[in-house]
Amino acid sequence: MRALRDWNVDEATHYLQSKNITLEKVKEIKPAGEGNMNCTLRFFCDTQSFIVKQSSSYCEKYPSVAAPVERIHEENKFYQFTNANKKLEGKLPQILNFNKSENLLVMEDLGNANDFSYVYTSDDKIPSDELKQVAEILSDIHKTETEGEVFINRNMRLLNHEHIYDIPLRRNNGLDLEGITKGLASVAGNLIENETYKRRVAELGGLYLYQGESLLHGDYYPNSWIKTEKGLFVIDPEFGFLGLAEFDLGVTIAHLHLSQHSEKSINDFLNAYDSKIDTSLVNAFAGVEIMRRLIGVAQLPVQYGIEKKTELLELSKNLVVGS
Question: Which of 109, 139, 171 delimits the end of a domain?
Fold first, then answer.
């Protein structure tokens, strides 16, 4: 079978019909979103459409970055868990077919949708009612039963661990921070030379790799939340695993800081999350996520300059090691 990215409408039609997904013919194939990790396409038929994803041995958006080819298997497993949780019905897309040998997933098309990435490029903030929904969905994900199944997703976690806890604080890591923002390399150097900070980041990296009891999304930030005509949905859980709930919460809090939401918005989000948490651990994970998004590989399209980035990196230090 050819790679999904090379399929034509006849191949797409044959696949959907052979899997008894639909009897209709595929009329058009278009990209579905940016597809950072996987090749993600939308198949248009006469009366319906489908989202089809395939993982390969590298990141779709960054072909030079190797990635575990089996990540789509782990994403499918996550959806198996959440699709069985009645409280999450209508909050995550439904899986229609999974082809293990071809690393290919067919899922429900949620229709016209927009994610929340606008918060990085505009002054608009996420309304409180939508932030509450984001928190409630996360709470229900964390409470989802996994029936004693093993869900480690080890290789994706190791990849994520390197990009969160290692590369940003590695000396001579090859990142052109000055090319991103003038003065950023000097500010980053202050953290790279801070041994107390680096030790605590390493400790948090160990906790990230710890096998906990909560089902985690693993990448819970504005690009993973989408608004549709059917409501607010959560997508792209390829980094999911069983771990510490505080990690997901910390990532979200970090992105609220990075998108310049108010402390009230952050508190509203935490108050809407319906479970007991270790707030200091949430803050520590948030501090690391702020750092890696500002001086690591996975840059955000933020519009502010060195003054705000310096302020946020100081916040990162305080959240990680205490003020």
Answer: 109
